[in-house]
Amino acid sequence: MALFKPRWIPDLEELTYPLTKINLIQMDFSEFSKGIDNVHIDITLSQQFSQATFNLVQQATQLDVARNLWREEKKLSLDWNKEEFTETYKILIETMIHRCHHKDETTTLPLLYTAIYRLIFISFNSSIEQIRNQLKEVASAQTGKSLEYHERTVQLAKGEDSVRYRVLSMIFDLLNHYEKGHLQKIRESLLHQPWVLSPELLFNPLLSIGNIDQNENLRFHYPLALNNGPFFQTVGIVFYNLFKHWLPLVTKPIPQDRPENWTIQKKNRFDQGTIYAYLKAEIQLDYLVQEQEYKKSHTCWMDAPENLDALLGGTQPKFIKTGIWEHKNWSDFQKQQLQDLQKILQQQKLLQPIWASYATNKLHNKLGSIVPIFIIFDYLSGKSSKKVLTRQIEAINGLYNPEATIQQIDNAAKIFKQLTKDEVRVLMVTFMCDFLRFRRDLKIAWMFYYQMDQINILRDSQEIELSIANHHLYSFHINEEDEEEKRIHTHCILKADLRGSTGITSSMREKNLNPASYFSKNFFDPINKVLATYDANKVFIEGDALILVNHSYSETGGGLAIARSCGLAIEMIKIVRRKAIENRRHKLPPLELGIGIVFCGEPPTFLNDDGHQIMISPAINWADRLSGCHAKLKNKKKGIGEEGQGVYARYKDDEQQRYNVNGIILDIPAFHHLIKEIKLKDFTLKSNTGNAPHHFYIGQYPDINNTMRWLFIRKGKTIGREVPQALNNYYEVISDSSVIHKVKAALTKKAKEKKKKRESP
């Protein structure tokens, strides 16, 4: 007689090691001072941005109501003024990123984002209330239209959730576009992190849906059945029982054995009326999730739905993927888990409502919006009878053919009993992943509502003055609204040594040409045009030498003075290279440039000479030395750039001799400060000639217009014997496009190889 074979189950580490580790960036406002009411955190937002937000929300709400509730196609002259909103939003976020970068802290940024979302919610509520009040005023002033406007009031009450969903979704899509593009690059460059709050939190669909109770907009993101508390609870218990061996105890569901008359009491709220969905989210959570899990932002592998998809073999028809688990019994384990899941879902009579959640969407789209979606769902899920369905359909005003509609719904209901084994499996895996996503989004929506509820956006001037006087106010303004005077704390000197000007001057005079206008038009004027882009100022011009400065206004020495000086230097090299081609065409001597960039960790000294400001800085002399090219190396034509352009150094005769022809040398303190300014990634490029590999530092920074620009810094090694440690290395800012192309190509190749390796079994 065959012995009973025990069921194999993996241990915790074996099951979870390949799963995605979820790490939601949360917020904690407990360290912020309470405001004038000792409850909320006092905040003021940019007046320009606040007005643009209210204008957009109001216009969008009025347009949506006119189009989708009143059906007034002739009154669609309103337009959503997106440009004003998006532009002020970008400026506000950019300003605060720079400010946090300067102060070397990011704790206030989550506060700003939370306040912005609260402002959007407040603006929508205000816009709906304004429409509601307008209906009341018109109804009372025009007695002959009282009934019409009463009906509109009823329509508004019924359609408010859908209006909210469409308007807020549109606004959050705008934010998503800029947050995942331009603003993410700035954060990554300056703050060394792409997000200050997780995108899963900021762009959570539940924020647009709002109240989830009988809200048909849920269907656009989650299965409809999940808005029912007891159903949500039952599914959660099924999931936990299936995977309880590999889940933390904190995820254990709340027991179902409560009194029949059990109701969830309203929790204490700082502001009950403004965020209605806050309470609804908590009521739904309290059917299933322990308070210590969602109030302490506890996360585990179940908060990444893709993990469950992998564990249960995916949703490929007729094919169960084993993933990267290598145990010989893994496939049997997956199949057993699926069998257990199907068995319990059938016992609990959950499969039909699960199927109905997806089938309802397809059928509702075919039938049109005139048939309420929950009538379809209740029948397909088996909750209502055909008699009830018939009565409900026949009661719908304006329905063209009730009998045909009833028949379509009835025919759709029969599909459930015809599902194949593979279709049931795909349905179960899809739904359980959607369940986990809804559960996670519900938790983080509650957390966002909780934090929003702590914020008070002040508008009253007396309240603002009182909060300022008590040092409680957190202000978020754009640059034009910030009256704080800038104070220079550090600075960066750029010295450009223009070589070949004497030869060009002589040659042009021989040809009866004007060298003064040549240099003005071809060198100084183009440089003057780009100074503002890199926030630079001229110190002085002396013959063929040009000295520029970038200031940093940060008390902690942050800012972007070094990065922008490097960017300006690259522009200057490009200008000289373009003119070199023109000089060859006119048979003029070559024009070369050497640039030195030096950081000084203190403000410069300013003298006044008969009304003219003169800047004194110890960095000028050192920048002058770096910009030059040693006499014995001028004709060596070495370096890594084509035609010998670039920088290298050797140690000889007890000194570091620098070659600098159309190159940019960054002094060592400037490089170390640059690392604090922006995020730099190091990368080694192998040499094709067998020489030592080149070591690069690569990063991005925003210019004054917040256009992201690349920086490539090469770490060079001084050639020679017994080189002092302080002179062992030097740093070159790369401007040669051929070198940059090689580095980018090598980076792309490395990224592809890394991706291929990660995807290979």
Report on the structure:
The structure is a single chain. With 761 residues, the protein is α+β, with helices and mostly antiparallel strands. It has three domains: 40-203, no CATH class; 221-481, no CATH class; 490-759, Alpha-Beta Plaits (2-Layer Sandwich). It contains 25 helices and 16 strands. Strands 5-6-4-7-12-16-15-14-13 form a nine-stranded mixed sheet, sandwiched between helices. Helix 2 runs antiparallel to helix 3 and helix 16 runs antiparallel to helix 17. The longest helix is centred in the first third of the chain and has 34 residues, at 108-141. The radius of gyration is 34 Å and the shape is globular. Mean pLDDT is 86; it is low at 638-644.
Question: What would the keywords be for this entry?
Answer:
761 residues, Alpha-Beta Plaits, 3 domains, three-stranded parallel sheet, 25 helices, 49% helix
What's the structural blueprint in terms of helices and strands?
Elements: H1 12-16, E1 41-45, H2 47-69, H3 82-103, H4 108-141, H5 146-179, H6 182-190, H7 199-202, H8 205-209, H9 229-243, H10 276-285, H11 291-294, H12 305-311, H13 330-347, H14 351-367, H15 373-380, H16 386-394, H17 402-413, H18 421-452, E2 455-457, H19 461-469, E3 474-476, E4 490-499, H20 501-510, H21 515-531, E5 536-542, E6 545-552, H22 561-585, E7 592-600, E8 605-609, E9 612-616, H23 619-627, E10 646-652, E11 655-661, E12 663-666, H24 668-677, E13 680-685, E14 694-702, E15 708-717, E16 729-733, H25 737-759
Parallel strand pairs: 1-2, 1-3, 7-12
Antiparallel strand pairs: 4-6, 4-7, 5-6, 8-9, 10-11, 12-16, 13-14, 14-15, 15-16
Helix pairs in contact: 2-3, 2-4, 2-5, 3-6, 4-5, 9-13, 10-18, 12-18, 14-15, 14-17, 16-17, 21-22
